[in-house]
């Protein structure tokens, strides 16, 4: 199963990290020296994605600008002999025609945002990548899923899963565990934010999916669910009646950058993974953890 396209839902308001996101998209918040959206773009490109589809909303223009060329900056860097900086910009620049943008005009939830990409995705399997969830690992989470998709076969769907504490399952979409197939297992039911004590497992749905295009037909008529929004999990439950879903327990350290604490942890984790920053950061942190 070849996965060529990835959808990035980036229309959210980022209310959990206000006031930082009042005028700046949460996807442009910086982890060390790159915005969140660049990390997930790089993860998708590493996984072999060829077409990157961003579902945006109001006040998200800086995301489009980020993936465009800034000729004035290039010219200034070249005039000043900043070859390293030019190489960094060139490395992160998408190929011409590889990026598309479409609008989610109303904040109706993740499922609705994915549905907004239907005309660009077309009739082929595709990935969904949530930009506020980062996974620190090489190869990346999506690359692991694409590799698993080769074993899953045609007309199957995959969900990235990771364990969460049992007392927190009510905060996530949770999957039931069925028959094992190597690194994967058949998903035996899904529930969005189950009531405490009712979750079928402690495996939570992370922000990485590989879905078949039939999901769009279900999303077109999907009723609102948790939070009064059109939930992607609810649509996947409907699709699971006709197609197989596999869970992929990925390797890596998951960071929820949509929360303030998660955002801070991600900055520390990604900086500590950098040989050029690790020692200096460790020394600085000692000043704040004494006693």
Structure overview:
By secondary structure, this protein is an alpha/beta fold. The chain has a single domain (5-159, 203-289), classed as Spore Coat Polysaccharide Biosynthesis Protein SpsA, Chain A (Alpha-Beta Complex), CATH 3.90.550.10. Helices cover 33% and strands 25% of the residues. It is built from eleven helices and 13 strands. The protein has helices at residues 36-46, 61-66, 71-79, 83-91, 110-115, 118-121, 141-152, 215-219, 232-239, 260-272, 278-289, and strands at 5-9, 30-31, 34-35, 51-56, 99-103, 126-129, 133-136, 156-163, 173-181, 184-192, 203-211, 244-249, 253-256. β9 (173-181) and β10 (184-192) form a beta hairpin. The relative contact order is 0.16.
Tally of separate domains: 1
End-to-end separation? 54 Å
What is the general shape?
Answer: globular
* Helix/strand order: EEEHEHHHEHHEEHEEEEHHEEHH
Portion of residues in beta strands equals 25-35%
Tell me the structural class. alpha/beta
């Amino acid at each position: 199963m070849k996965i060529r396209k990835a959808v990035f839902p980036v229309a959210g308001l980022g209310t959990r990290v206000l006031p930082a996101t009042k005028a700046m998209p949460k996807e442009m918040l910086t982890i060390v020296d790159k915005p969140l959206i660049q990390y997930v773009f790089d993860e998708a490109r590493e996984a072999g994605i060829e077409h990157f589809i961003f579902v945006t909303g109001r006040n998200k223009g800086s995301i489009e600008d980020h993936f465009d060329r800034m000729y004035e900056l290039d010219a200034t860097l070249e005039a000043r002999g900043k070859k390293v900086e030019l190489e960094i910009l060139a490395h992160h620049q998408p190929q011409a025609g590889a990026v598309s943008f479409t609008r989610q005009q109303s904040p109706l939830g993740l499922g609705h945002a994915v549905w907004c990409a239907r005309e660009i995705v077309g009739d082929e399997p595709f990935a969904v990548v949530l930009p506020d969830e980062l996974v620190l690992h090489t190869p990346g989470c999506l690359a692991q899923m694409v590799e698993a998709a080769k074993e899953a076969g045609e007309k199957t769907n995959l969900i990235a899963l990771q364990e969460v504490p049992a007392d927190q399952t009510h905060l996530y979409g949770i999957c039931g565990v069925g028959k094992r197939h190597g690194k994967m297992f058949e998903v035996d039911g899904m529930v969005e934010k189950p009531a405490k004590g009712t979750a079928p497992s402690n495996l939570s749905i992370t922000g990485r999916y590989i879905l078949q295009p039939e999901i769009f037909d279900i999303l077109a008529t999907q009723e609102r669910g948790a939070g009064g929004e059109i939930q992607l999990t609810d649509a996947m439950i409907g699709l699971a009646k006709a197609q197989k879903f596999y869970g992929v327990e990925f390797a890596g350290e998951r960071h929820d950058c949509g929360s303030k604490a998660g955002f801070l942890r991600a900055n520390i984790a990604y900086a500590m993974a950098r040989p050029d920053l690790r020692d200096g950061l460790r020394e600085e942190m000692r000043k704040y953890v004494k006693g």
